[in-house]
Amino acid sequence: MNFAKSAPIPAKLTSDMELKHRNTFGLDAIAEFAYDITSAEQLPALLKTLTEKKMAWRVLGGGSNALLPAQLPGATLLMNILGQEIVVVDGDGDGDSDSDSDSDSSNNGKHTLLAVGAGVNWHALVAWTLKHNLPGLENLALIPGTVGAAPIQNIGAYGVEVGQYIDSIDAFDTIDHVFVTLSQTACQFGYRDSLFKQHPDRFILTRVIFKIPEHWQARTHYAELAQQFSDPNSLPTAQQIFDAVCRIRCKKLPDPKVIGNAGSFFQNPLVTEDQHASLISQYPNLVSYPDKAGMRKLAAGWLIDQCGFKGQRVGAVGVYENQALVLVNHGGASAEDILNFAKSIQLKVHQQYGVQLAIEPNIF
Ligand SMILES: Cc1cc2nc3c(=O)[nH]c(=O)nc-3n(C[C@H](O)[C@H](O)[C@H](O)COP(=O)(O)OP(=O)(O)OC[C@H]3O[C@@H](n4cnc5c(N)ncnc54)[C@H](O)[C@@H]3O)c2cc1C
Fold first, then answer.
1. pLDDT tens digit string along 149-164?
2. Which of 53-62, 180-189, 197-206, 228-237 is predicted with the least confidence, judged by mean pLDDT?
3. Distance 315 CA to ligand 1 centre (A)
4. What does 16-83 look like in DSSP terms, one character per residue?
5. Which domains, and CATH codes, for the chain?
6. What stretch of H or E contains 243?
7. Ligand 1, closest atom to CA 144?
8. Annotated catalytic residue: which of 264, 288, 296, 334?
């Protein structure tokens, strides 16, 4: 892995770089100055220069949770730090006194620590862990994007969130201009949330250290997965869960290579039990899930579907016909077109259900 301490080669600079193929919405976007970040050591000098020049900058991973404008003035840092290595095998006990006591990964058993560069492709990493007999991340298969972006919104799917498997994160703190290592607790993971989401642009994540417990348990409680493994006498392997997740996702979600999208466009809104009780008395079919104490999570897709948006299209923007939570670019849409359509959905859902939908992708 290239985390060498010797003088770094400066990040390669490309002017007026086309980013259409580095955002899954397929939006036309030009980065004025694109920097190819291949090593953490390139960041201090680059950030010093950008600060001195008072130049705008932003970080881009795979662009799968991003709404890019047509022009990105200033610097765009393309996170391409590669490499992965097992740093501790058979680590004993919890090892991190900061870890959340209820997380799957802190069950006081043996574990493996795996350090992965921020630019590594997420799905490729999940496949790699299974090949190296390190199961745990399989429910998160086929989520697009990079390892360095995964903690930003604490990616989650089928009952698992990445934060459960993170030991610590190496990052460059762009305010104090120092490298920091943040423990799992310091990262403040929540539903589609983290310290990094709360403090955008402060930390540039360079390396994620995963903690994979030796003790593995299948998580197939989510309805779609449970249906695939209904025989109680035959327990699925991690590889079978990985394959099932890939199958389900391919059926349900549009492939960004075929039709531009950023996955779920809205977060599932949290409401109090009282709000939920009032809603369900009016809408008995309301879809919701229990959440943290006193709260319930509503299925945003159901709300949007009930408002009649599924499959609808306005110009080049539409709601995916098989999944109302996904907005798609039929070709030629701009970020503004997508946001305008999103606003009309938010308005209708609010008028009908009194619930505010929050946009999930990052608006650049
Ligand atoms: C078809 C599809 C399905 C999806 N399914 C899911 C799903 O099931 N669950 C889920 O949670 N998400 C899902 N997503 C959303 C997306 O894949 C994830 O959020 C992913 O982690 C984004 O990675 P990225 O590298 O593309 O990030 P980008 O889109 O490039 O960036 C996202 C944000 O992270 C910041 N960022 C990126 N890298 C770094 C870094 N190294 N340091 C600091 N900041 C950084 C960016 O500035 C930006 O604010 C889906 C997207 C698509 C297109």
1. 999 999 999 999 999 9
2. 228-237
3. 26
4. EEE-GGGSTT----EEEEEEEE--GGGHHHHHHHHHHTT--EEEESSSTTEE--SEEEEEEEEE----
5. 12-79 (3.30.43.10), 84-213 (3.30.465.10), 260-363 (3.90.78.10)
6. helix 238-252
7. 17
8. 264
